[in-house]
Amino acid sequence: MIRLKTKRLIIRDPLPTDIDEWHRLLSDSKTMYYLPDIMTRSLDESRRNLDVALDEARNPNRSKYFFAIENSETSAFIGTVGYTVTKTTPLGKFAGAGYFILPEYHGQGYMTEALNEVIRFAFEDDGVYRISTGCITENRASERVMQKCGLIKEAEYKSYTWHDGRIKDRAEYRLLKDEWMNTKKTLGVNGNNEPAHNIFTNTMADMKWPDIQHYADKNAVVLLPMGVIEEHGPHLCLATDIYTAQIYCESVRQKLDKKGYAAIIAPPFYWGICQAAGGFVGSFNIRSDTMKALLFDILSSLKGFGFKRIFAVNAHGDVEHKIVAMNGIKEACEQLEITACFPHDDFMLHHFGLSNDAPCFYTIMPQKVKISEAAVGDVHAGDIETATINTFYPHLVDTQKAKLLPDVSLGDNFEAWMFGGQLKQLSPQGYLGSPANYESADIQKNIEDNAHRISEAIITRLNRN
User: Fold this and answer.
1) Nearest by Cα to 353 from 310, 278, 361, 50
2) In angstroms, rounded to a whole number, what is the distance separating the alpha carbons of residues 350 and 419?
3) Computed from CA positions of residues 24, 25, 31, 36, in that sequence, does the dihedral angle turn out positive or negative?
4) What is the pLDDT, as a whole number, of residue 264?
5) Total domains in the fold of the chain
6) What is the Cα–Cα distance from 250 to 454, expressed in whole angstroms?
7) pLDDT of residue 329 exceeding 50
8) Looking at 90-127, which runs of residues are DSSP E strands?
9) The predicted structure's pLDDT at residue 191
10) Contact present, 263 and 252 (Cβ < 8 Å)
11) Is 80 exceeded by the pLDDT of residue 432?
């Protein structure tokens, strides 16, 4: 009998005693909405389905791996996860994955945790080479599970599936063993087969000095992730900004590389100014002179390594933080004779008396793609930031709490907020936006779009020199 264990779950072959919960899962209309052909209408039908899984578990040449998922502390039945071997090749088995979870366990990261472990088992213990799966694109929760587990989107088929009275699009995902191994090696994996929480991933901090020298010799662009450690509502971790900046930097680096610009990511800069959120516990704040001096010393170190083209990628919107960063980078440019630039959104330039050709800045064009369905925009710890951290670091988000938070809007206070507003006066819980709508935010599209606009802005600025 196969029995796998993660931090919170037992993933095991089914038992005859699972029949009641097995039936509750397969006959639940909400759970089976996107796969009505598999939905059962009677206990006998569910029993026949379970019998197939039981027979396969006893088969020495099994091709179907249908596992029950249960809570390791309470033994509560949560859902099922598994795969079917579709063919065997000289490279290994090809398998199609699937999963179902009872509605009361949605949004708690259980399926991501379970599927991650099944993927590990398939690749490490069962000789699987390729895993594929897919879903109707409107089933965003299922697609996010695929993305969190590192599966790669291969295709999106338009008007592909007839479902619930209309034609719908379908997305297909895959993961090869080699891709999984590379991701595991790059990200690091903790004892529960989850990506290690590490803002230094893919930065200079994880490299050896000769590797950094190699990039300096190529006159590589340096990306400097910038953020702060501050409160992000009652549902998000304090490091949300700097995690986000590091996520953006990795995508920007890849886009620059494809355009022929070598790029390397510096260790994140996360000691900044939290003027707006400073009234909350957890919001670390440093003096302006300290931030400016620290930033100057970092840029001076980078110049000493041989780098002369440095671009900050900032994920913290506090105006005082931006002003100090701008002044610090401007001073470093003048004294160190390097090209160091701080990002500015095009629509904000006039507020700072800047133009598109201002030195020591690079201008990012406005976002034109639709990312969110929320009626209230994400100013701080809203749906987009919540969805971003939940996609990459799901265990750092209290999704149950996020779903209960009411919308909090800036209303007519946008400019007052941008130029010195105190968050605690506007939102006692420390967020502005609609965290409860995080599941509707298209985070992959958001990261792709931000990386595109940032990389294009960097290339435009480089071409001015």
Assistant:
1) 361
2) 13
3) negative
4) 96
5) 2
6) 12
7) yes
8) 92-101
9) 42
10) yes
11) yes
Residues 286-308: what's their mean pLDDT?
96
Mean pLDDT of 358-374: 88
Positive or negative, the CA dihedral 355, 356, 359, 363 is: positive
**Token pair in block for residue 440:** 């509707």
- DSSP letter at 274? -
**Distant-in-sequence, close-in-space partners of 244: CB < 8 Å, separation ≥ 6:** 227, 315, 385, 388, 389
Neighbours of 223 (CB within 10 A): 26
Is the four-CA dihedral 446, 284, 297, 266 of positive or negative sign?
negative
User: Can you tell me the distance from the alpha carbon of 49 to that of 360, in angstroms, rounded to the nearest whole number?
Assistant: 65
190 within domain boundaries: no
Contact 106, 79 (CB under 8 A): no
Residue type, 370: K
Domain boundary residue, one of 145, 165, 185: 185
Which structural domain range is residue 105 located in? 3-185
Q: How many beta carbons lie within 10 A of that of residue 215, not counting itself?
A: 19
Residue 19 lies in a domain: yes
Q: Which residues pair with 157 in a beta bridge?
A: 170
CA gap 448, 314 in Å, rounded: 16
Amino acid at 436: A
β-pairing verdict for 339-345 and 361-364: parallel
Does 415 score more than 90 pLDDT? no
- Select from 185, 213, 240 the last residue of a domain: 185
| β-pair partners for 92 | 89
Please report which helix (H) or strand (E) contains residue 152, including its range. strand 152-163
Whether 191 maps to a domain, the answer reads no
Q: Do residues 45 and 70 share a domain?
A: yes
In this structure, is residue 33 part of a structural domain?
Answer: yes
Tokens (6 digits) for 132: 């594929």
Q: Tokens standing for 366?
A: 């406005």
Position with higher pLDDT, 190 vs 17: 17
Q: Are residues 257 and 335 in the same domain?
A: yes
Contacts of 146 (CB under 8 A, 6+ apart): 133, 135, 173
Structure confidence at residue 186 (pLDDT): 47
Is pLDDT above 90 for 360? no
Q: Alpha helix locations (H) across 167-217?
A: 177-187, 209-217
Query: What percent of the chain clears pLDDT 90, i.e. is strictly above it?
Result: 71
Query: With 80 as the cut, is the pLDDT of residue 198 above it?
Result: no
Question: 351: pLDDT confidence band, cut at 50, 70 and 90?
Answer: low
